[in-house]
Amino acid sequence: MATDGPLLDVRGLSVSFPAPRGERLTVASGVTFDVGAGEVVGLVGESGSGKTVSSLAISGLVAAQGGRVEGSARLDGTELVGLPEKELRQLRGARVSMVFQQAIRSLNPGLTVGEQIAETVRRHRQVSRKAAWDRAVEMLDRVGIANPSARAQEYPHQFSGGMCQRVMIAMALCCDPRLLIADEPTTALDVTVQRRILDLLLELRAEQDIAILFITHDLGVIAEMCDRVVVMYAGEVVERGTMLDLFRRPRHPYTQGLLDAIPRGRGRRLVSIPGTVPPPMALPSGCRFAARCPYAEPGRCDAEHPPLRQVGDGSSGTREARCVRAEELELSGVVTA
Ligand SMILES: Nc1ncnc2c1ncn2[C@@H]1O[C@H](COP(=O)(O)OP(=O)(O)OP(=O)(O)O)[C@@H](O)[C@H]1O
Ligand SMILES: [Mg+2]
Questions:
Q1: What InterPro entries has UniProt attached to this entry (predicted)?
Q2: What is the rounded distance in angstroms from the CA atom of residue 111 to the CA atom of residue 108?
């Protein structure tokens, strides 16, 4: 069912896992954002902020790990939360695909890469073995693997890390999904290989009008890749906005801290935010960032848990921050032009 709304509409998504003594640990709460057709949206935040669990919840992969998902995630109008596994399997690979950090681990070492891609094609499309194989070779070619018909007959261990990542992207895109969730797809790769994979994703996006949810902790990569940005901290969305607006004028002190941590030019020191993200079992009752925030006001910021709310006049699209001081603070960004 197609709708006029965004391609992916995530609202109030929460993920919890069983903890000792029968309790549940909530690791993502009230996560709300959307991705338009053909748009690249970055999901950024320090390690443990809930980026991966949120994306796994969207793909229906949390239950397999014993997790529970609440809230809503609609893809083209179809509610994904609570959808039976059989239907989710139909959607995964066909309408939404994922690429993870360590491609080699997601590939089957006992099958040639051609067989693996062809198998994915046949899972979703009623085509002959020959047609599926041809599609696999075509996809390997499309992601820049030289001599694709010969390489299709090789096994994953015969490919480098960067090539495995290309194979994963070929597999993710072989059934023309509308949404690709890329979870740190280049983190394990060296800088030049990373560059080529990012270029490839941008090319594929331009060619196929595919939307990408790009998960990373690297704001430099976000600046290059994304139209809009969602910032997560300690399981929550703390800021949302267009990439340029958010880089020009962050509205949450945490975003400013992340921007400060981008090394600019030679010799510039990487500034990291002092302190650590509070773990899910020890979240403060007020603002979750207050203990690390240089602007926190005692008695105000630690008193109440702030909601994610609209800031500014809306002239530069949806602009939201989870900070009671969002309007009064003049935070500095990195884009000055
Ligand atoms: N299967 C699980 N069972 C219990 N807790 C989990 C499980 N998976 C993730 N968590 C917890 O959920 C929280 C969020 O983890 P998540 O992997 O989503 O973080 P992330 O933002 O992707 O971090 P990173 O940048 O390191 O990938 C963490 O506290 C993590 O320990
Ligand atoms: Mg992760």
A1: AAA+_ATPase, ABC_Ni/Peptide_Import, ABC_transporter-like_ATP-bd, ABC_transporter-like_CS, Oligopep_ABC_C, P-loop_NTPase
A2: 6
pLDDT for 236: 97
CA gap 230, 239 in Å, rounded: 6
Summary mean pLDDT of the chain: 90
How far is ligand 2, taken at its centre, from the CA of residue 147, in Å? 33
Atom of ligand 1 nearest to the CA of 101: 27
| CATH number for the domain that contains residue 256 | 3.40.50.300
CA angle centred on 105, ends 197 and 216, rounded to 5°? 45
Report the C-alpha gap between 296 and 277 in whole angstroms.
16
pLDDT at position 270 is 61
Q: Using the mean position of ligand 2's atoms as its centre, give its distance from the Cα of residue 50 in Å.
A: 7
Structural domain count, the chain: 2
What domain range includes position 108?
A: 100-176
Report pLDDT for 266: 57
Alpha-carbon radius of gyration of the chain: 21
